[in-house]
Amino acid sequence: MNIITLPNYEEISLTCANHIAGHIRASPDSLMCFAAGDTTLGVFKELIKLQMEDRVDLSSVYYIGLDEWVDLGYEDVGSCKQVMFDSFYFPANIPAHRISVFDGKNTDYGEQVQRALDFISDHGGISLTVLGIGMNGHIGFNEPGVDASFSAGVVTLDNVTRTVGKKYFHQPYLIEFGITIGIKSLVEAKEVVLIANGARKAKIIHKALCGNKNNSIPASHLSNHPALTVYLDTDAASQL
Ligand code: F6R
């Protein structure tokens, strides 16, 4: 694992965006899987800037959405779909046929899961996944207790995820379930980037990176991935 500690969020976002752009230039046509949430927003801004400077073509690759809150769709502020389209896919001009995302309002979850798994295998597996980490160690909606063999599906959300998740929404949604790409598919990615910033993430970063792999800290399953890069600011790295 390569841990890169930088002074602040802006530096993480810029360095990480350059890393991703390098991967895209080296592997056009490959499949990306990016987390929504607050952590990756800075990376998206920097990637879009790189594209405006003609330093990367973000529409040369494909994108599989990582996860979604069951019951929420694009029209719900804070849904993963709304965040990803408004902060990345639309401003980056990614053609619709290059994107596959979950729709939390479509109750045919079995079909959605199969479509996501087919999209992944049709594009040769996930080439690069860029992940944030939850306060409970989740990645995507792979919640504490997840099994390493889980490839994608609907999950019951952990209480911490439900409580912390309120920060994204303008309304008091009562969300019990999520739909997510599973830990198995993420660990199978050719390359994994994990990003964390802020002192509040220091303890869970320590648990995820310094302990043994265990299902109670889903991100710990990434720790011995052969191509894992972790971008941290000094606060998030403070307990390593
Ligand atoms: C979002 C997602 C989540 C977040 C994680 C960190 O699509 O998959 O796992 O990456 O909860 O969230 P933030 O970045 O808001 O701290």
What is this structure's SSE topology?
Blueprint lengths: L1 E5 L2 H18 L4 E4 L6 H12 L9 E3 L2 E3 L10 H10 L9 E2 L8 H14 L3 E6 L20 E5 L2 H7 L11 E5 L1 H5 L3 E6 L5 H9 L17 E6 L7
Parallel strand pairs: 1-10, 2-3, 2-6, 3-5, 6-9, 9-10
Antiparallel strand pairs: 4-8, 7-8
Helix pairs in contact: 1-2
The structure holds fructose -6-phosphate (F6R).
Q: List the helices and strands in order.
A: EHEHEEHEHEEHEHEHE
Multimerization state: single chain
Structural class: alpha/beta
- Mean pLDDT, to the nearest integer, reads 98
Global outline: globular
The side-by-side strand order for the widest beta sheet comes to 1-10-9-6-2-3-5
Major sheet details: 7 strands, parallel
* Helix-residue proportion: 25-40%
State the distance separating the first and last CA atoms. 13 Å
Write down how many β-strands occur, each being a DSSP E stretch of 2 or more residues. Answer: 10
Question: What ligand molecules are bound, each kind once?
Answer: fructose -6-phosphate
Proportion of residues in β-strands: 15-25%
Query: How many DSSP helices?
Result: 7
Q: Measured on Cα atoms, how large is the radius of gyration?
A: 16 Å
Unreliable stretches (pLDDT < 50, length at least 5) are none
Question: Can you characterise this structure?
Answer:
This protein has 240 residues and is an alpha/beta fold. It has 7 helices and 10 strands. The strands form 2 sheets. A 7-stranded parallel beta sheet has the order 1-10-9-6-2-3-5, sandwiched between helices. Strand 9 (191-196), helix 7 (202-210) and strand 10 (228-233) form a beta-alpha-beta unit. Helix 1 (9-26) packs across helix 2 (41-52). The protein is globular and about 45 Å long. The protein starts with a strand and ends in a 7-residue tail after the last strand. The mean pLDDT is 98. Residues 35-39, 66-67, 80, 132-134, 138-140 line the site of fructose -6-phosphate.
